[in-house]
Amino acid sequence: MISHFDSDHCGKAVEIIENLNVKNIIISKQVEWSQEFENTMKIAQEYKVNIIEVQAGDRMKVDKYIYFNILWPSNAELINENSLNNNSIVAKMIYENFSILFTGDIEEETEKKILSKYNKEVLSSTAIKVAHHGSSSSSTEEMMRAVNSKIALIGVGRNNQFGHPNEEIIERLHYYGNNIYRTDLCGEITLIINKRGKIRVKTML
């Protein structure tokens, strides 16, 4: 599943397709052209990878235990401003009593649309992949209150030029009861969930 075609979210997609046995790629409708999208689609076609385009309301079944509910984007409400980020796939993965909300690089405008479409029951998740690397452009009070997560995962490079994650967002995540794991401090982060929903977090650093 490629949330959107910014290079930091899909830059190695071509190498993955070339070196692993990829059968399916899940994407959303593209509002604007990008070189990364063109490169990925070209190599996917060459390797006969199945392209699945999803939108809000779809459900992607992984196996009999795991599925994704696609919450965004809605093809009828695509956002033109900062379109790559704001039309990122937002998907809630559910496994038994555990759930995690993947948010791509959505910003406040998209969060408002999502909050207007879904109630807290739909959005509430055990964990969240924090939007846009912990930027101040998202993770609003209203969104974090609705998601009500206990684990927050932030994908971010050490000493990055953007100053991510934003300190106010870190404080907000703590305020709403999240244990925070960041790739700049923790390295690779793995969540291990058993059938009873017990969670073990494994980090590389």
Describe the structure.
- This protein is an alpha/beta fold and 205 residues long.
- It has a single domain (55-203), classed as 4-Layer Sandwich (Metallo-beta-lactamase, Chain A).
- It contains 9 helices and 11 strands.
- It has helices spanning 7-10, 13-19, 35-46, 83-86, 108-117, 120-123, 141-147, 167-175, 183-186, and strands spanning 24-28, 50-54, 59-61, 66-72, 90-95, 98-102, 127-129, 151-154, 179-182, 189-193, 199-203.
- Helix 2 runs parallel beside helix 3 (35-46).
- The longest helix is centred in the first third of the chain and has 12 residues, at 35-46.
- The chain is globular and about 45 Å long.
- The protein starts with 6 loop residues before the first helix and ends with a strand.
- The mean pLDDT is 97.
Runs in which pLDDT lies below 50 for 5 or more consecutive residues are none
CATH homologous superfamily name? Answer: Ribonuclease Z/Hydroxyacylglutathione hydrolase-like
Arrangement of strands in the largest sheet: 3-4-5-6-7-8-9
Give the terminus-to-terminus CA distance: 26 Å
> The CATH topology, please?
Metallo-beta-lactamase, Chain A
N-to-C SSE string, H for helix and E for strand: HHEHEEEHEEHHEHEHEHEE
The assigned CATH architecture is 4-Layer Sandwich
Strand tally: 11
Into which percent range does the helicity of residues fall?
A: 25-40%
- Average per-residue pLDDT, rounded, comes to 97
Tally of helical runs = 9
Structural class: alpha/beta
Strand residue percentage:
25-35%
